[in-house]
Amino acid sequence: MGGVGKTTLVTHLYNQLLERPETRVYWITASQDTSMNRLQTSLAKRIGLDLSNEDDEVHRVVALKKELMKKQHKWVLILDDLWEAFDQQKLGISDQAKGCKLIFTTRSEKICQQMRTQHAIKLQPILEVEAWTLFIERLGHDIALSPEVKRIAMDVVRECSGLPLGIITMAGCMRGVDDPHEWRNTLEKLKESKFRDMEDEVFRLLRFSYDRLDNDSALQQCLLYCALFPEDYNIEREELIGYLIDEGIVEERRSRQAAFDEGHTMLNKLENVCLLEAALNYGSRRCVKMHDLIRDMVHQILQLNSPVMVREYSDGLPVVDMWKENLVRVSLKRCHFQEIPSSHSPRCPNLSTLLLCDNTGLQFIADSFFTQLHGLKVLDLSCTDIIELPDSVSELVSLTALLLKECNKLRHVPSLEKLRALKRLDLCGTTALEKMPQGIECLSSLRYLRMNGCGEKEFACGVLPKLSHLQVFILEGKSIAGTYAPVTVKGKEVGCLRELEHLVCHFEGHSDFMEYLTSRNKTQSLSSYCIAVGIQNVVGYSVMKGGYGISKALWLCNLCNNGDGDLQVMFPYDIQQLFISKCSCEVSSLIEHSIELEVIHIVDCNSLESLVSSSWLWSAPLTSLSYNGIFSVLKELKCYRCRGMKKLLPPILLPNLVNLERIKVEECEKMEEIIGGIRSDEEGVMGEESSELKLPRLTKLNLINLPELKSICGAKLICNSLENIVADDCNNMEILVPYSWRCLVNLKTIEVSFCKKMKEIIGGPRSDEEGSMSEESSQLKLPKLRSLKLCGLPKLKSICSAKLICDSLENIEAVECNSMEILVPYSLSCLVNLKRIEVSYCGKMKEIIGGTRSNEEGPMGEESICRAKEICDSLEEITVKRSCHSEKERATTSMFAKAPPCR
User: Fold this and answer.
1) Which residues, in sequence order, are bridge partners of residue 459?
2) Does 205 share its domain with 181?
3) Residue 140: which residues within 8 A CB-CB, separation 6 or more?
4) How far is CA 407 from the centre of its chain?
5) 880 forms bridges with which residues in the sheet?
6) Which UniProt keywords are given for this protein, alphabetically ordered (predicted)?
7) Which of 212, 232, 269, 391 could be bridged to 414 by S-S, CB 3.0 to 4.6 A?
8) What is d(CA 150, CA 157) in angstroms, rounded to the nearest whole number?
């Protein structure tokens, strides 16, 4: 039976198995038309095997079997929603694979018998008490039902026959309803349902939930459109909403952002009534997902009202007879066909959507294919290997969306002059296209244009002013053999687009950027933008990608001072991300009004001595810095290869950096301090607690290749939120974390490598501090520290000279620390979670876990070394790698003799 909770049950099992390091678990969703070839390909992908060039089934089976046999861990394969029995040997599953399991769900008991299952678990409908608990949980615990409504609601739950999916869906569609008349009406309609004779009882309940959307046809159409996507597919919200706008299901609004807001609202409503599920894809982008039973129900509705043809993961193009004249939508995603021959010329006058995307082998479409598809609105050929777009596409005058994204072999697009209804044109990633399609300037209805330069270095002049309704303009550069080549556009032409909301483009230089800023409508505010200024061909430079979700970003490159003084760059006030590369211009005075900055990256700016110049600090009224809010929302600050920079941040700015989370500084040869010390003239401005500097949200601090760096901060720094510290090639540092930073209560990892002068990771108290401290206050506590990695530190003598308490520590590694004699001093007590110790090439290492010093000796005395088991009971692994001299061999043996028992 469907809807009883099979998938939910194995999902919980899958998540539990993921937490077991000794077990590998693989999930594959089977569907009604799944072939053995697709199952093999899916499994191969999960286990890291490439079968794309292997067509012979025997060879595929052998390859799978070998790969599975190589797995050192136990593994579990979960097949969800199996519709046909199969020979397990064809998936490479051998009877000799001991400790490995195949788990599958199916609606058919017969399949269990055919698969010769060792344990068949038949899920039954849940009990009435459980059904009511589930219903109330999904309805909302905060909703108080009147006695009358509660009685009716209990009858509604009984009509759900103990099927969890039906209960959840009914609770979703009745959420917020408190009128007993509406509850009674719902109960009566359920009892009168015409779907009782269906094989699966749950369809009756799902159809009822769908029918309750009757007063919102757009919402129904939105749900029906989701059925065009493959089963168990995570549908990206923005991709789906784009289609809905193209089809007119989401009506045009005053702006594209408003239309997207309407689309998100519709999807939220469908989630709230449990007809769609919320999901995330691998990039954590928001998605929706449709339960397979709801999808089956939707397909039945579509065949009655708006016939569709949906094929997925099948092999080959549907035969001519399948292209019925009354078809409204067709989806052939991932159907693995190479061409559409001239024998296919379907007569489908009502066809509005044709999705041929994700067929990576599709190279040829005959011109005859589109000749009788005059009603087509949406044509998606994205991610195919099409070489030439047929000329007949030029006659599709009803087309509103032509999507050719990532067609990287496409060389020819016919004239688009007649496509006056076209609103969205996506040519992103068409890197082989050498000429801009003719007629783009005639697309007066165009709202969305995304493309690269089509072989040109500059976007054709005179085109943009004719596309006056553009809301989205994304002009991307190319990355060819690792070299980034921008495509520029004239600032004045972009500035004339009065309805523009989203912009990604490159301006050749400062003058074009200024031209854009001065020519655009002063009241115009872009929802998002990514503007690059002055970027030239750069090896290894990342290609700027556009799309929804990008913030407001500005890239400045190769800008320098003019002869009369500082180059004046006018920053948009709402900029969120700033990237500066190879610039010698003074920018600090120009960001004082950009109070929304969240990210700053500075690269190869050799003339800069600090993030903000001393001249600007002196000219700016210090008391107004906090008031102006400069850097008050900054989250990330990165600085690379700024050869002249000595101090990253002046202390006067720290009161504003309340949201700073990440700092990374790399290859700044003259960097002496990350945060400068406090000058005497600043103390009064910074208040009574000027001796303490605070970064309350800093979580990551990375310091790499800073040869002159002496300390992170010259004053006492309080950053309780710090989680990770990395220091690499900082050859002038002697102490990483000074004793004054005692409140590192969230620190989780410390990694220090190749710092030649490093003597101590965490410093002890200074002589002037010791007398004023009690025994408890002299202790350093790192309650969340889990990992400590030390490598290439020739002068390191100890981790910490003070008493250090970090009972959460799990892993310690020391490599080439040739001055250390004791890795873990006895003062580093209570290592109750320590699991792993590695010591490699530490020539003077005598003890891994040290004994008590003379002033610490108590009842345990010298025997404490041999009783290290009492210190770290959880220890699982000790690794010692040393040279093979006999004396050192004896030392190694001695260390193991004193080590506690390990696994």
Assistant:
1) none
2) yes
3) 175
4) 24
5) 839
6) ATP-binding, Leucine-rich repeat, Nucleotide-binding, Plant defense, Repeat
7) 391
8) 10
pTM: 0.78
Strand partners, 23: 74
Is the CB of residue 747 less than 8 Å from the CB of residue 771? no
How much is the average pLDDT of 605-610?
A: 84
- The two tokens of residue 490 are 């004239």
| DSSP secondary structure, 431-479, as one string | TT--SPPTTGGG-TT--EEEEE-TT-SBPPTTSGGG-TT-SEEEEE-EE
Contacts of 70 (CB under 8 A, 6+ apart): none
Provide the CATH number for the domain around residue 269.
Answer: 1.10.10.10
User: What distance in Å separates the CA atoms of residue 666 and residue 431, rounded to the nearest whole number?
Assistant: 34
736, 631: one domain: no
Question: Does residue 231 sit in the same domain as residue 327?
Answer: no
Domain residue limits at 277? 217-305
The answer as to whether 544 is a domain residue is: no
Nearest alpha carbon to residue 877 among 835, 845, 848, 840: 835
Q: Could you give the angle at which helices 128-139 and 164-174 cross, rounded to 10 degrees?
A: 40
Number of residues written out for the chain: 903
Q: Is residue 668 situated within a structural domain?
A: yes
Q: Which residues are CB-contacts of 504 (< 8 A; sequence separation ≥ 6)? A: 473, 474, 475, 476, 529, 530, 531, 544, 545, 546, 550
The reply to whether 329 falls in a domain is yes
Each residue's pLDDT tens digit, 428-471? 988 888 888 999 999 999 999 999 867 778 888 999 999 999 99
**For residue 548, what pLDDT is reported?**
46
Mean pLDDT of 142-171: 84
Name the pairing type of β-strands 502-507 and 528-533: parallel
Greater confidence (590 vs 702) lies with 702
Helix (H, G, I), strand (E, B) or coil at 158: helix
| Span 204-242, pLDDT tens digits | 777 878 888 877 889 999 999 999 998 888 999 999 999
Nearest to 81 by CA among 29, 34, 10: 29
Pick from 125, 121, 138, 131: nearest CA to 172: 138
- pLDDT, one tens digit per residue, over 651-660 is 888 888 899 9
The first and second tokens of residue 656, run together, are 């504003």
Of 503, 533, 563, the residue that ends a domain is 533
Residues 73 and 179 in one domain: no
What local confidence, expressed as pLDDT, does residue 873 receive?
A: 65
Q: What is the mean pLDDT of residues 863-883?
A: 60
Cβ(158)–Cβ(128) under 8 Å?
yes
Residue 48 sits in a domain of what CATH number?
3.40.50.300
- Residue 885 banded pLDDT, cuts 50, 70, 90: very low
In a domain, 122, yes or no: no
pLDDT at 318: 87
One-letter amino acid for residue 583 of the chain: C
Residues 297 and 322 in one domain: no
- Cβ–Cβ < 8 Å for 61, 89: yes
Spatial CA neighbour of 370 closest among 323, 422, 409, 439: 323
**Are 53 and 162 members of one domain?**
no
CA 519 to chain centre: 36
State residue 563's pLDDT score.
Answer: 44
The mean per-residue pLDDT over the stretch 68-78 comes to 76
Q: How confident is the model at residue 887 (pLDDT cuts 50, 70, 90)?
A: very low
Residue with tokens 């800023």: 517
pLDDT confidence bin for 373, thresholds 50/70/90: very high
| CATH code, domain carrying 586 | 3.80.10
> Do the strands 724-728 and 502-507 form a parallel or antiparallel pair, or are they unpaired?
unpaired
pLDDT at 773 over 60: no
Whether 183 and 156 have beta carbons less than 8 Å apart is answered as: yes
Q: Which two tokens stand for residue 228?
A: 């065009």
* Statement to judge: residues 753 and 899 lie in one domain: yes
**Domains identified in the chain, total number:** 7
Residue 889, pLDDT score: 46
Q: Among 114, 139, 165, which residue terminates a domain?
A: 114
Same domain, 791 and 898: yes
CA separation for the pair 715, 733 (Å, rounded): 16
